[in-house]
Structures are given as C-alpha cells and as structure tokens.
Predict the structure.
Amino acid sequence: MTHHPVHASHTVPKALAGAALALLLAAPAVAAPADRDAAPARAAVRIQEAVLSIPAIGVSGLAVVPYEGSPDDAAGTRIQDRGVAASPYGPHGGVGPGDVGNYIVTAHRISAGGPLWSLPSLKTGASVFVSADGVRYEYVITTTRTTSFRSQASMDAQRAAVPGSPGAAATRAVITVSTCLTPEDNAAGNFWRDAQKNPEHRLDKIGVLTATHPDK
C-alpha cells in the first residue's frame, strides 16, 4: 500500500499529525520475506552417549560415542578403532537416539575386536536396543542396504533422514547400524580403500523405533 505524506497545515491539526508520526515510528518493523533458497532449519540434535545391544547376534553393552561428522570419516574411524561404536550427527550425519530421523551407528567388523562381526546375519524382525539418558529405545530391523563409499549418491542415501531417500522429510525415528564388508570385497577382488583404509562397501541394517522403555 502506498502512503501519501500528511500535510498537517492543510488536512489535520498539527497535534494529530504529531501523534500519527509517533505511532508510525513506534510500529514494529516488518520482517523481510524468507529466502526461498535458504536451507531449512535443522532440529536440535541431542548429543548423547548411548549403549547398543543386539541380542540376536550377541552384541551387548557396546558403547556408542557421538561426534559431529559423517559415517566412517577420520574422526569416526578413530572412535571405532577404540573398539566401540560411533554415531555421527550434524549436517552430514544423523540424529540422536530416539529422535525423528536417522540415528546412525557404525562399528568395525574385523578390527578393534570386531564388535559387529555378525551384523550380516541379523534378520528382518530382530530387535535392536539403544539405551541413553535413562531410556531404552527398541528398534525393529526392516531393511538391509549396501552403501558404496565410492559413490556420493550412495553415501547420501545412507545418511539421509529417510535412509535410501535423500531429500525426503523424516516422519519417524529410524536407526542405521553399519559396518564394513571387507571380507566380501576382498573375496570379490575389490581391494579399494578410502583415506581411512576402510573398504568400499558398508552393510546397513535399518530399523524403525517401535517402543521405548525405562532403562533399568
């Protein structure tokens, strides 16, 4: 709307003109339209240490250390080298335990004690438990994926809020438990390694949150 200047000496008394000016100066500023190209705001991530248990494959009480980064990057590999699991969060990682989105947990399969050696045998329908901050989250495995670390599109699909669907909005809490496929790659003659000496392929077991319990 176009505002025409008020001529106090011709249209309204000077006192009223002064009051109108005061109201205009006191009015709150109108926010500028949002930039349509700006990235959407990300939900705050709860940075929590956790404990992973997968009874079906004999994993019990495996510490999960959160860090800002992406799956199996240098920082994450250093954590896994201690024989524990790592959980990346942030723009290139996932969310916290129990949160809506993709909670990503990675651990070694053949080195540092190989805590996820038996992950390939984990079947659909098996339960995965994550304990954090007095709560025990139960996820049920629904899908198995393979990620290639020589493909950016494949890595984007692994760490997406909806695993396998980059850009899709998350509506539920899921977990991705990931480990290397070193024996399988070696058997196929694939000896490619990344900067951390990790093999090309990762096995991802994906589950959905089905229940929460007090952590006793």
Remarks:
- Helices lie at 14-26, 74-80, 152-159, 182-187.
- DSSP finds four helices and eight strands in the chain.
